[in-house]
Design brief:
globular, 2 helices, 188 residues, single chain, five-stranded antiparallel beta sheet, 41% strand, mainly beta
């Protein structure tokens, strides 16, 4: 399992090994032991599976506030997507900064998005499936969102002029400047 640190502390790219032959491949997509060896001690309690029919579908940027904050381990089961984490921890030196990674069935990469980060993605191909683990159960009263197109955040979604497909909720999410983040940076 390959672990890559990103410019945002706690956000990591994980690439599980694939062992293949003429039949296909086998991959251990999650190993608590392997992640613990890299300092990740998250206990996951829920798996989610999302399907997006059209390329250019944006979901996010979402988070759950404490006491139901969630770490997420995101992978692509079919198709391809661009997965994004935005730091929304008050007093963090990277507050408002984002990191994105291309996740696809082909590359097998995963993104670990810790609590304190808003998470979202855009599909690159039709019929894309997103599978992710969460460290807390879904709690609708703790839901929060950040505008996907906030110019102060400046995510480069790679839409190439395509008009994104959004939910009404995501289209109305607040800007970072208007967000009362429930997260405080707790690092050194």
């Amino acid at each position: 399992m390959q672990i890559e640190q990103t410019p945002l502390a706690g956000v990591i790219v994980i690439t599980p090994s694939r062992h293949g032959d003429g039949r296909g491949f086998f991959s251990e997509s999650y190993s608590q032991k392997a992640l613990a060896a890299h300092g990740v001690s998250t206990r996951f309690v829920q798996d989610n599976h999302s399907f997006s029919k059209a390329a250019g579908t944006i979901r996010g940027l979402h988070f759950q506030a404490p006491p139901h904050a969630q770490d997420k381990l995101v992978r692509c089961g079919r198709g391809a997507l661009f997965d994004v984490a935005v730091d929304i921890r008050r007093n963090s030196s990277t507050y408002g900064a984002w990191f994105g990674a291309e996740l696809s069935f082909e590359n097998g990469k995963q993104l670990l998005v810790p609590a304190g980060f808003a998470h979202g993605f855009v599909t690159r191909q039709p019929d894309t499936e997103i599978i992710y683990k969460c460290s807390d159960h879904y709690a609708p009263t703790s839901e929060g969102a950040l505008a996907w197109n906030d110019r102060d955040v400046g995510i480069k979604w790679g839409l190439a002029g395509r008009i994104p497909i959004l939910s009404d909720k995501d289209a109305q999410a607040p800007l970072l400047a208007d967000l009362r983040s429930p997260f405080e940076y707790e690092g050194a």
